[in-house]
Amino acid sequence: MNNGILGTKVITQIGLLVHDIEKVSQAYAEFFGMEKPAWFWTDTVDKAQTEFRGASSEARAKLAFFDMGSLQLELIEPDRHASTWREHLDAHGEGVHHIAFVVEGMKEKISLMEGKGLKLVQKGEYTGGRYAYLDTFEPLKVMLELLENDK
Amino acid sequence: MNNGILGTKVITQIGLLVHDIEKVSQAYAEFFGMEKPAWFWTDTVDKAQTEFRGASSEARAKLAFFDMGSLQLELIEPDRHASTWREHLDAHGEGVHHIAFVVEGMKEKISLMEGKGLKLVQKGEYTGGRYAYLDTFEPLKVMLELLENDK
């Protein structure tokens, strides 16, 4: 055995698409007895450098995070611009969008995955790191997100 | 704040429905550098006492588990009998079916949830414990599974 393509198998996040982040955040907070976190917008394209299917996109999303044990549950309410979030929400409705893994060497990981025919769907920057979604649905039955945080 | 309805917010499992558990197990094993676990059938109805929407069901599924950090990823290939697994797979295709939580006092937890209008969808026994799926899709955008293990 080896460490696999990602060098990790620790799921750090489950991402869910929702239509109304306020309402779903409230439901989670009540059901699990947690404080309702404040949601925030992802950065604008000048800062996030968002690319969806190879093209720059102004897409943004409202995000809210809940600590659920050793991983985070992420709620995502996308805007109307083109993104994997909007595409998935329109095609499949609300529900799970991805599971995420923290990696080192984002570029190399993406190259390794592309070498296996797994397509980069979307990528972008956030304060302190960057993310990439890859279409792993055919082999793994769920989309993966890679997260790389600056040291 | 309180501890919420379940008394826990630790996600212990993510369950995915698949058409071919052998194939998807192999893909996970290769991608993440893990050993391919042996899948196994859930118990027959005499032992599992499976109930789906209030009626006894002979439904069974092949299950395989992968340790992915502090939680397990569960692959589920259902048979043709009536179950939440078969229903969800037929309606939505392959992908995430539920997230699971280990609880104490299964009956009480189910009652509390039913009191909030959340319906019990399926329940059953396994060696060393029992499970219940509840339809939490409307508020939480994903189905929950409760697991209770004998002490």
TrEMBL record, chains A, B:
One of its GO terms (biological process) is L-methylmalonyl-CoA metabolic process. It comes from the Bacteria. Residues 10-149 form the VOC domain. Gene3D superfamilies: 2,3-Dihydroxybiphenyl 1,2-Dioxygenase, domain 1. Keywords: Metal-binding. GO terms for molecular function: metal ion binding; methylmalonyl-CoA epimerase activity. The keyword Glycoprotein does not apply. InterPro entries: Glyas_Bleomycin-R_OHBP_Dase, MMCE/EMCE_epimerase, VOC_core. SUPFAM superfamilies: Glyoxalase/Bleomycin resistance protein/Dihydroxybiphenyl dioxygenase. This is VOC family protein. It comes from Paenibacillus nanensis.
